[in-house]
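Thanks for the sequence, V.! I ran Acyl-CoA dehydrogenase right away. Repeating your input here for the record:
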Amino acid sequence: MILTDEHRQLQRTVRSFVQQEINPRVDEWEKAGGFPTHELFRELGKLGLLGISKPEAWGGLGLDFSYEAVFLEELGAADCGGVPLSIAVQTSMATPALANFASDELKEEFLTPAISGEKVASIAVSEPGAGSDVAAIKTRARSDGDDYIINGEKMWITNAPSADFFCTLVNTSDGKPHQNKSLIVIPADTPGVSVGKRLHKMGMRSSETAPVAFEDVRVPKRNLIGDEGSGFLLQMLQFQEERLAGAALTIRGLENCISQTIDYVRDRQAFGASLLDNQTIHHSLAEMQTEVECFRALTWRAIEAYIAGQDVTTLASMAKLKAGRLCRSIPDKCLQFWGGMGYIEETLINRYYRDCRLTPIGGGADEVMLGIICKLMGILPSRKKTDTANKPAKEASTVGE
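Predicted structure:
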């Protein structure tokens, strides 16, 4: 895809924000296990960066998803993965279904302040016993007149400690697992909503993650997104944008791993010469950069198809799978070239190594992506073809949902 002058201007705006407002404070936020979410989101909102592809009627810029992808790709150049992840939850995980399928009343109450940064959004799908298998969630919403009464527990919820509302997937009937679910907006200050202690994670330490429990939580039925029983489908559609966003978000971080490793091995001396002079090392770095460029091309091909209104389930799953694969291999190879320094937490390569490890798990594990791709290629074993006939692909929720 050829970027326009408008795309380039957006790139410069995001790059400046990352360099001036995020990177100087990353070390502090990593140690604290979180960042001032409302404060940073309000600044992003003032620049229009939280509603790039959202409708103008609700405060967005009304641009196509290519501009959102430019924003996310540049955001991924930050010196940590946690802050970009929290922002992407706001823009590309918790609000797409709200923007596309909610009532005008619901958009006014929740989408508009999410775009301005006045409210922090969170997506609540995963549960202690239902991560990759979304159809297995247990949280229930019982009808009671004009309200729902909700009980259940969600796990690994990014932004939960700061969230003002949760876009929550629940069971609203005892029907078939793919037809009995609904998406409901639950304000965080509703009686019966409780956020647990922040989880201490291997990486993504500057993003706040916690369990959320719902005990006899009463919300009006007008908080329903779309039709009752359509939640699984709406969440699957939302996953496609989430996975494109997740892929775009990893590109610049991978490039940073490579460029910073080049700088380090150029200066590092061993056996009387620069490590960069070793053919094994500089060939490996060249191959890694080539892999990133191939990954970028796949991601942008998927984005173009998405903008054109095509079904991008296969391409988005492939881009997410490739993101997961490269996020495991590239930081690992680069860290090896740093030697003992790479094992020290204070180095950026160490942080990239820890943060990137979430990618092949969150937003749909690699194994789930392979299952989706195989199904759409028609190459599942014959038994599985019979078992899954006329059923939606089993999808994955994400650490952070």
